[in-house]
Design brief:
Layout (H helix, E strand, L loop, with lengths): L35 E2 L10 H10 L3 E2 L6 H13 L4 H7 L3 E4 L2 E5 L7 H16 L5 E3 L7 H9 L2 E3 L2 E2 L2 E2 L9 E4 L6 H9 L3 E4 L3 H15 L3 E5 L5 H9 L3 E4 L2 H11 L11 H7 L10 H4 L3 E5 L5 H19 L4 H4 E2 L7 H13 L5 E5 L5 H4 L18 E7 L5 H24 L1
Parallel strand pairs: 1-8, 2-10, 4-16, 5-6, 5-9, 9-10, 11-12, 11-13, 13-14, 15-16
Antiparallel strand pairs: 3-4, 7-8
Helix pairs in contact: 1-6, 2-4, 7-8, 9-12
Bound molecules: iron/sulfur cluster (SF4).
Length: 429
């Protein structure tokens, strides 16, 4: 039985397309960048909800695509991302199949989700709709190197970032800006509007649902507790729609927060207000005061966090508010909406189930900076040569919601290649 999931670095299976990164140690690029925009000052005083409504009504705005899907976009996307036949073969056989010395077991839920597929389709259609214009992406469209490289090859460039600042000055009048599946902060949208550019918005509808949630918190004067990573593009965008907010990364931070709410009555982990503000320095709205701003709270999430974790954090916060204010007063102090996408959780559950099978190892395929892919990794990380056992091997394959099927297939083909070289070297002895 495979007791832990391990990662190894393997090189590209096909020379044409680099594999989605599979790294263990080695130098790791910063996963997330907190960016601020340069250029004309973007006002943050406007009501984000009203602004977005106006933004979406502009004639230079599109979030549905351009009707080219059945033409070349579909064909090009299939060529770039669809699996040729290995994934299909696995699916036909209950997600398990043996090719010579390699048996593959595929996680039931794996790879690209609906929201990512939709974002890519719209971006591909934008290239076709605007064949000669400059097209910019406000961020990586998703956290997958293969996908971002493909778009770059199509002339879709990411707005550069210098010393933590997004260089929006590179975008000129008449250019096209594609907003990534993670969305964009309000100030950035405002700045782009001033620049008179064509906007193609691929924000996943589940992400904009979270924006509506924090807007409702704001309307009711509840502080948004956002379960996410404060510098992740999606959370930066979500926070820009919130009023008062605090971002908690995990249960440890949520417990600290709740302990503070309960005056040390949860587990004693919190201490002074100064220590609280230092701990959440980068993760709170301007002027945040934990003594006043935690009296009325609601919970929202970064969609790539695990659903179960967000639900547990929500329960902990709700219980803490009940303890503080009484069950009868909970609705005045806690508000909850269900906006959690299952995409990341389903893939994690499937990976967990896969790890219970008889396997020699599991390969997790996806971008190193992909939050949903990283959530599939548990257990010890090791780096080693000769990582593939000799002889017959049974491999589990898992993949995050931003991983195209073609990447998964490329990894499997690479394993076949290594095994065939092994056979060859044995024959040569
Ligand atoms: S995992 Fe969910 S929220 Fe994230 S892109 Fe996919 S569908 Fe959208």
């Amino acid at each position: 039985m495979a007791s832990c999931v391990q990662f190894w670095r393997i090189s590209s299976a096909r020379t044409e397309i680099p594999l989605t990164e599979m790294r263990v140690f080695g130098r790791r690029m910063p996963s997330f960048l907190r960016c601020s925009v340069t250029g004309e000052a973007a006002s943050s005083e406007l009501d984000p909800k009203v602004f977005r409504h106006e933004f979406m009504r502009r004639k230079e705005y599109n979030r549905k695509g351009f009707g080219h899907h059945e033409e070349t976009s579909l064909e090009r996307m299939s060529r770039d991302y669809a699996s040729e036949n290995i994934i299909e073969k696995l699916k036909e056989n209950g997600n398990e199949y043996r090719w010579g010395e390699v048996s593959v077991k595929l996680a039931e839920a794996h790879g690209i989700c609906w929201g990512v597929d939709r974002a890519l389709r719209i971006a591909y259609e934008a290239r076709q709709q605007f064949p000669t214009q400059n097209i910019w992406l406000n961020n990586q469209i998703i956290h997958n190197p293969t996908v971002n490289q493909r778009l770059e090859e199509m002339g879709v460039k990411i707005i550069p970032v210098k010393e933590g600042k997004k260089q929006v000055d590179v975008v000129g009048k008449g250019d096209v800006v594609v907003l990534s599946a993670f969305g964009a902060p309000v100030d950035e949208m405002k700045l782009l509007t001033q620049k008179n550019v064509e906007i193609v918005d691929t924000t996943c509808p589940w992400v904009s649902k979270v924006w509506h949630t924090v807007e409702k918190h704001k309307k009711g004067e509840y502080t948004s507790i956002i379960h996410g990573k404060y510098a992740h593009e999606e959370t930066v965008a979500t926070a820009s729609f919130a009023g008062k907010y605090i971002i908690v990364r995990d249960m440890e931070e949520a417990s600290y927060l709740c302990d503070y709410i309960l005056g040390g009555g949860l587990n004693g982990s919190s201490s002074t207000k100064e220590a609280f503000l230092e701990k959440f320095n980068d993760a709170v709205s301007r002027g945040f005061d934990p003594d006043k701003d935690l009296e009325k709270v609601g919970v929202a999430n970064q969609t790539t966090m695990l659903k179960r974790d967000t639900e547990e954090i929500g329960k902990l916060v709700e219980n803490s508010m009940m303890r503080n204010y009484g069950v009868e007063n909970i609705s005045k102090h806690f508000i909850s909406f269900n906006t959690i996408c299952d995409g990341a959780q389903e893939r994690q559950d499937a990976t967990q189930k896969l790890a219970e099978k008889e396997l020699d190892l599991i390969l997790v395929v996806g971008g190193w900076n992909s939050s949903n892919t990283l959530s599939l990794q548990h257990g010890e990380l090791v780096e080693k040569e000769e990582w593939l056992p000799k002889g017959h091997v049974t491999i589990g394959i898992a993949a995050g919601a931003s991983t195209p099927h073609k990447d998964i297939e490329d990894v499997i083909v690479k394993v076949f290649q290594i095994k065939s070289e092994e056979d060859y070297s044995h024959a040569a002895i």
